[in-house]
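Work Package 3 (structural annotation) set out to generate three-dimensional models for the target panel prioritized at the project kickoff. During this period the team completed the workflow that converts sequence records into discrete structure tokens, so that structures can be stored uniformly alongside our sequence database. As a representative example, we reproduce one entry of 196 residues exactly as it appears in the project archive.
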Amino acid sequence: MSPARCAIPFLRGAALALFALLASIAGAAASERIAVKVEKSGQRVTVDVVVQADAPVALAWSVFTDYESMPAFLKSVTQSKVLKRDGNSVTVEQAGAVRVAFMRFAFHAVRSVELAPMREIRSGQLSGDFKEYASTTTFTPTEHGVRIHHHGSYVPKAWIQPLIGPALIEAETRRQYEQFLAEIERRHKPEARPAS
């Protein structure tokens, strides 16, 4: 098999891994509060995620913008750092890997992020495995907490299998948002009171 053919599965996997990461990642109870929809039209893939968290908007915002700490609560992220910060404009570099069956796929991305505090995160790719990438994540207060809506539109450099690809992207995206939700809930728990 030629080197070019050997590289194709890796490129597909890297693209799937980046979808999971950029979508700008614990149990059944969490899954019931997370809705994920993935659609593919030609080369373009769109991802929509809606999450209901029983926590204040400020807490959810702090988790989604805590880029330096993401490797601690997102299993697929091994490196996440802010390269530049200018007011509400941030440049973020992230790297990591995901496993699909018996294969491990690494990813790396540098993103430009525009923050509208407590309301919206807009993100675009500066470098990575996409021809085009743009996403918006919004935070809306609700009676019991916050509704988080992520919308991403992507054109990968590598080909994505039409039937299997979207299903894998949906599964990895759901796992990532379960981990986001778990971290929000962990930070929201009241501190244990000392015994009287």
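The chain has a mean pLDDT of 83.
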